[in-house]
């Protein structure tokens, strides 16, 4: 199923996170340094945005899992896990969000909740463009292909 546009900014980040998770799980040289480099740049803002924007929409179980796994990933970045362990955590967390959590949200949010979430995740998406003009170009191209005119 196609991802709802309100969740797309998170799914875009997930593609990058899965590539990183794979290189960690394969224990490639430099993968752990790359994880630490991307933590401040990409992963931490992503987790913070999910916690700020999605937590109010989650069940207690979903919220518990999301927070527990974010905390475990923060510990992994602090060097408390092996590269393979950190990669596995990141991979499984992203897969859970993509395959279970996001479809659950897509099936139960009201139109109004989607509209509010879209405005908020769109604002989040734009914060990612400053250091990544390629991302902005890709997102703008996708919007225009779909004939969408987001603010
Ligand atoms: Fe997450
Ligand atoms: Fe995520």
Describe what this molecule looks like in 3D.
It contains 6 helices and no strands. The protein is 78% helix and 0% strand. The radius of gyration is 16 Å and the shape is globular. One fe (ii) ion (FE2) binds next to helix 2, helix 3 and helix 4. One fe (ii) ion (FE2) binds next to helix 1, helix 2 and helix 4.
Short overview:
With 151 residues, this protein is mostly helical.
* Ions and ligands: fe (ii) ion
Q: Show unreliable segments.
A: none
- The tally of domains stands at 1
Report, as a whole number of angstroms, the end-to-end distance: 25 Å
Count of strand segments:
0
**Order of helical and strand elements:** HHHHHH
Secondary-structure blueprint:
Blueprint (H helix, E strand, L loop, with lengths): L7 H18 L5 H23 L6 H21 L2 H26 L2 H17 L5 H13 L6
The site of one fe (ii) ion (FE2) has 6 residues, from helix 1, helix 2 and helix 4.
Please name the defining characteristics of this protein:
about 150 residues, mainly alpha, 6 helices, binds fe (ii) ion
């Amino acid at each position: 199923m196609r991802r709802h546009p309100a969740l797309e900014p998170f799914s875009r980040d997930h593609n990058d996170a899965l590539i990183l998770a794979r290189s960690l799980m394969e224990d490639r040289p430099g993968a752990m340094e790359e994880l630490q480099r991307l933590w401040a740049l990409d992963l931490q803002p992503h987790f913070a945005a999910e916690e700020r924007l999605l937590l109010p929409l989650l069940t207690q179980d979903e919220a518990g899992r999301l927070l527990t796994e974010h905390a475990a990933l923060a510990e992994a970045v602090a060097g408390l896990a092996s590269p393979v362990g950190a990669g596995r955590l990141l991979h499984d967390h992203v897969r859970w969000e993509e395959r279970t959590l996001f479809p659950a949200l897509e099936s139960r949010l009201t139109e109004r909740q989607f509209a509010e979430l879209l405005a908020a995740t769109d604002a989040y998406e734009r914060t990612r463009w400053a250091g990544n003009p390629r991302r902005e170009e890709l997102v703008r191209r996708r919007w225009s292909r779909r004939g969408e005119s987001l603010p």
